[in-house]
Write a structure and sequence with these properties.
Elements: E1 2-5, E2 10-14, E3 21-25, H1 27-39, H2 51-102
Antiparallel strand pairs: 1-2, 2-3
Length: 103
């Protein structure tokens, strides 16, 4: 998704796959952001080329990778447990049904 910003505070979003264009008026959002920045004493914003920005972005990227790895590990552990459970009881269930059919 490509996002372009203009001075009059409108954003144009172009969806990469469909090419759908959305124009969003961001005036209220921009004003709320300025109020928050003034309240917290923020005088300047980081640019994407700033070293502090890159450090923070790297930190959050690594944190997200760890969370994703934990999520994948939990899901795979659950799947392994269920597969073991299935293999443990699948044959017995089949034999019970088979013996009931012959009775």
């Amino acid at each position: 998704m490509l996002v372009l910003s203009f001075a009059y505070c409108a954003c144009i979003r172009i969806h990469a796959m469909t090419g759908v264009v959305c124009v969003i008026d961001c005036t209220r959002l921009h004003e709320a952001l300025q109020v928050k920045e003034q309240a917290h004493g923020i005088t300047s914003r980081w640019s994407p080329s700033c070293s502090e920005y890159k450090e923070v972005q790297s930190f959050f990227s690594k944190q997200k990778e760890r969370e994703l790895a934990e999520l994948i590990w939990a899901a795979s552990s659950r799947r392994q447990f269920l597969l073991r459970l299935k293999s443990k009881y699948a044959g017995k269930h089949f034999m019970i049904k088979r013996s009931q059919n012959f009775s």
